[in-house]
């Protein structure tokens, strides 16, 4: 199943380009039953380095992903 991932605050180096207009987002293929923790590992992102929203809500790392979910990933220290 596919999920959409959007990166913020310099996390763009984790993007696997999916096309010329992919910008700061990408799609990832995950197996059914995958959790946020599993997705972060798949992307090579250490858990303590980021915080995330799943469909605009803070969730636990063990939250299961569903087809079409949107994950927003931020560095653990992010400001402006």
Q: Provide the gyration radius in Å.
A: 12 Å
Binned, the helix content reads 10-25%
Order of helical and strand elements:
EEHEE
Report the mean per-residue pLDDT as an integer.
85
> For the largest beta sheet, what order do the strands appear in spatially?
2-1-4-3
Q: What is the straight-line distance between the termini?
A: 34 Å
Number of strands: 4
Please provide a brief summary of the model.
This protein has one helix at 36-43; strands at residues 2-7, 25-29, 50-54, 70-75. By secondary structure, the chain is mainly beta. The chain has a single domain, classed as Roll (Ubiquitin-like (UB roll)).
Describe the fold and architecture:
- The protein is mostly beta strands.
- It has a single domain (2-75), classed as Ubiquitin-like (UB roll).
- Helix content is 10%, strand content 28%.
- The protein has one helix and four strands.
- It has one helix at residues 36-43, and strands at 2-7, 25-29, 50-54, 70-75.
- A four-stranded mixed β-sheet has the order 2-1-4-3, with no helix packed on it.
- It is globular and about 30 Å long.
Question: What labels would you give this structure?
Answer:
Ubiquitin-like (UB roll); single chain; 80 residues; 10% helix; mainly beta; globular; 28% strand; 1 helix; 4 strands
């Amino acid at each position: 199943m596919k999920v959409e991932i959007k990166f913020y605050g310099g996390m763009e180096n984790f993007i696997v380009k999916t096309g010329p207009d992919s910008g700061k987002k990408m799609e990832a293929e995950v197996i059914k039953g995958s959790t946020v923790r599993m997705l972060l590992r798949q992307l090579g992102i250490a858990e303590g380095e980021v915080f995330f929203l799943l469909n605009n809500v803070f969730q636990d790392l063990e939250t299961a992903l569903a087809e079409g979910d949107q994950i927003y990933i931020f560095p653990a220290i992010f400001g402006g």
